[in-house]
Amino acid sequence: MSANSFAAFLENAAMALLLMLALLVSWVILKRMTSAMRKGVIAAESVLIDGLTVSVQSGKLEVCFIVPEGWGHACDLTVLNDARDVLKTLHAGSLHAGEHSFSCDLSDLDATFLSFKTEGQTLERRLR
To answer: Which among 49, 57, 63, 88 could bridge 79 via Cys, Cβ 3.0 to 4.6 Å?
Structure first.
């Protein structure tokens, strides 16, 4: 191997290493951006679920929560029994921003749980 071919080999190897380093840095940046965007979505969902209030008085269920601006996911609000079978669906589908409340008469239902599902999260609250 001559000196010129060895120098060319070293140049090619250095360029390949620089290209791999640039790709690795790009991948790390994109991975962090994706993670940050997911955290933003999870934070928005958490705000929706954290603001959920449930009360049962005289056999009547009242559920209230506030949907934040820009919310675009479907929400399912159901009443379940001990076996987690759906007894009644209070809401299924998307919701507009603002305060929402739903009510249901539980006197003729053997309801045990309220299930609140959004994309990526499920919350169950015991009713009795």
So the answer is: 88
DSSP 74: E
Q: Give the start-to-end residue ranges of the domains of the chain.
A: 44-126
Which of 16-20, 37-41, 43-47, 96-100 has the weakest average pLDDT?
Answer: 43-47
* Residue 69 reports pLDDT greater than 90: no
**Which CATH class, in words, describes the domain spanning 44-126?**
mainly beta
pTM of this structure:
0.59
Q: Please give the Cα distance from 26 to 49 (Å, whole number).
A: 35
User: Contact at 8 Å (CB) between 107 and 59?
Assistant: yes
Asked if 77 and 91 count as a contact pair (C-beta separation under 8 A), the reply is yes
SS3 content of the chain, % helix, strand, coil (to 5): 40, 40, 25
